Amino acid sequence: MDTTTFIIEKGTIIVVVFAITMLMAMYSTWAERKVAAFLQDRVGPNRAGWGGLLQPLADGLKLFTKEEFFPNTPNKFLFILGPGIAMSTALITSAVIPWGDKFHIFGKDVVLQATDLDVSILYIFGVLSIGVYGIMIGAWASNNKYSLMSAVRASSQMISYEVAMGLAIISILMMTGSLSLKEITVQQAEMKWNIFYQPLAFVIFLVCSFAETNRTPFDLAECESELIGGYHTEYSSMKMGFYLFAEYANMFISATILSVVFLGGYNYPGMEWAEQNWGVNIANIIAIAVLFAKICFFIFFYMWIRWTIPRFRYDQLMNLGWKILIPLAVLNIILTGIVMVLFN
Amino acid sequence: MAVEQISLSGRKKVVSNKEMTFIEKIYLLTILKGLWITLKHLFRRKVTIKYPEEIREMSPVYRGQHMLMRDDEGRERCTACGLCALSCPAEAITMKAEERKPEEKHLYREEKYASIYEINMLRCIFCGLCEEACPKEAIFLTKSKKIANADYSREDFIFGKDKLVMPLEMAINNTKSNTAN
């Protein structure tokens, strides 16, 4: 009986998280177009539904009805596998995110997290590095020089920025002493956000997350002016849609990780007070709302950056990654160590 | 003053290739500056004119779709002289002349009229030279904001007399207002 309730509980959470990730990714495409338009003094999509709110559905429908084109490639299986990997890796990262503390339903505590891995951060890094295979395999199987070029760029970019990203997070781990995202969130309660203790790590992590999600200014993998569409040059119909969609799902996930690791996750000032006076459920509904506000801020920030900063040149990208971010991250680790020894 | 420093517009900027300072090299501050600029645009008034709902304010000399005029008695003014077609720099106008029969006196003002009058709206550049060339004040480019609508076939953009000739009700109204004055 216990197993059944466990499966139902976790199953519900998984389905809800999946649906929310999809919904957020869907509306990120709408938001991106709106933000782009507003930053350029335009109004953006406003025909499909109120304020263009049905635009993502219309886009999806359009992509479904498009002709499915296969290039002359010997690797048809890999060609289909590419977008699949990109999409699934974008989605499975959300399993370890603590969306809230817990709900109290039917006399039972429901933890708002699909699974509380002890090694959540390692898990996320692992999945992120698989994510590059989606791009690489798809581009390789396209049998197109532009795509191949883009695959080379994407993989080398991801490898170089993963190093700096990992090093940046090490300084956080030194402070928290735990790899579990839940633990990291709990430790940031009552405004003890990591961003105040580790601003440098935050900046490094933020810059790297732009590179990891292939967003401007580091979107060299799909640099239109040089590589046409990059890795999705040969893709059409919903396979193309999957790639584009995976980018937004990735953006949502990395915004979530940023807010969980650095902005205190679902914590908000006065959460304990709210829990005592208004009950666990209301306090946690606010907590989820707060987390989503933080996530939405980061998603907006991604778009804001995209329409502000032009694309980096490839050598600049590599210089920034290897010669600036990695030394800075190492320096940050040393500084953290010194400060911890001196003040503890 | 040296020639290099003269700036008649007052907006001249001398380009310099100076080395970037340390703060500029870090980029972060300049990126924040850029973000501030784009953020200000977020709240600026949008320049878009939402076309079917809002219509752009047209200039007083705006030239819209052509109209073949009728006179006070509602007769077509065109006499099919072909001067408009001759003046047209885009070769957009064609017509076929025909002699007016006695019983058609109430329809056409001149003894010769255009039985077919076609303007290819894909060719037309709305320059208004046909209007200037016309000796009979028969063709005018209206101020109507109706521009040739999008369509699928090229044939649909060749406007014949059915679309070009002034509607009769309009001619009646015009005559009424003229006699009232």
TrEMBL record, chain B:
Task: Write out the residues that bind [4Fe-4S] cluster 2.
Answer: C88, C124, C127, C130
**What is the required cofactor set for this protein?**
[4Fe-4S] cluster
Q: Which InterPro entries match?
A: 4Fe4S_Fe-S-bd, 4Fe4S_Fe_S_CS, NADH_quinone_OxRdtase_chainI
Supply the SUPFAM superfamilies for this chain.
Answer: alpha-helical ferredoxin
Annotated 4Fe-4S ferredoxin-type domain residues? 67-98, 115-144
Q: Give the enzyme's EC designation.
A: 7.1.1.-
Q: What does this protein do?
A: NDH-1 shuttles electrons from NADH, via FMN and iron-sulfur (Fe-S) centers, to quinones in the respiratory chain. The immediate electron acceptor for the enzyme in this species is believed to be ubiquinone. Couples the redox reaction to proton translocation (for every two electrons transferred, four hydrogen ions are translocated across the cytoplasmic membrane), and thus conserves the redox energy in a proton gradient.
Per its record, how is this protein called by name? NADH-quinone oxidoreductase subunit I
- The gene name on file is nuoI
